[in-house]
Design a protein that fits this description.
Layout lengths: L1 H56 L2 H23 L3 E10 L2 E11 L4 E4 L7 H18 L8 E4 L7 H17 L4 E4 L3 H5 L3 E8 L2 E9 L1
Parallel strand pairs: 4-5
Antiparallel strand pairs: 1-2, 2-3, 6-7
Helix pairs in contact: 1-3, 2-3, 2-4
Length: 216
């Protein structure tokens, strides 16, 4: 009897351990997702800060010009990727003679519109798209001109699979249009395949193995 009791107890404990491991895996996945979203929002806040500084350093005329250029470019990027009637708008006000900017997206439906902050609109995908578009806009309108490539770390990591193809096409078109090289790190198979040159990096026993993946 004692042996049977111990065996049953062991089986019961093993089940509890397996359940705990499953719960831990779920919590870890949720933690990883949350940390990824926090990183995206921090990157987004960083680029917004740079755009606001750009507004603060320009004259009223230059500010209006920059505002229009940024709104148009980001709106076109959103519409191209999401294939919907959505707009990006910037509202500029002054506090103690210092320009302040608020950023919004306007989703237009049949007969009505919804205006929200980007981080509250349709999840993280919108933030990722706007962040990329703002980087492109900032580099193109900044004076003096910013030279060099556009470097992206995991672009569009929260963009759904339904739109990732459009994001890849947008990056390729932007590179050609603005004659600016884009260097990115990505785990997304489609984004890696649209590049002119890509490298596949694996880790084996603590050593990074780099292999050329494609060259068109």
């Amino acid at each position: 009897m004692d042996l049977d009791f111990l065996n049953n107890k062991i089986v019961s404990l093993e089940k509890e351990i397996n359940v705990a491991r499953g719960e831990r895996s779920i919590l870890q996945a949720q933690l990883d997702k949350t940390q990824s979203e926090i990183q995206s929002l921090e990157e987004y806040e960083n680029i917004l800060s740079k755009v606001i500084i750009l507004f603060q350093k320009t004259s009223d005329y230059g500010r209006r010009q920059a505002k229009t250029q940024i709104e148009n470019l980001v709106t076109k990027c959103l519409q191209y990727i999401l294939e919907s009637d959505i707009e990006f708008t910037i509202e500029i006000s002054e506090s103690r003679d210092i320009p302040q900017a608020e950023f919004y997206v306007i989703s237009n439906y049949d007969g009505y519109s919804i205006k929200t902050k980007p981080e509250l609109a349709r999840g993280g995908g919108i933030v990722d798209i706007i962040s990329i578009a703002l980087r492109i806009a900032f580099m193109q309108i900044h004076r003096p001109e910013i030279q060099g490539p556009l470097i992206l770390d995991e672009p569009g990591k929260h963009v759904s699979d339904d739109y990732i193809f459009n994001l890849g096409e947008l990056l390729k078109k932007s590179s050609n249009m603005f004659k600016r090289q884009i260097i990115m790190v990505t785990h997304d198979k489609h984004l890696s395949e649209i590049c002119d040159l890509s490298y596949f990096v694996t880790n084996k026993a603590g050593i990074s193995i780099v292999e050329k993946s494609n060259e068109y």
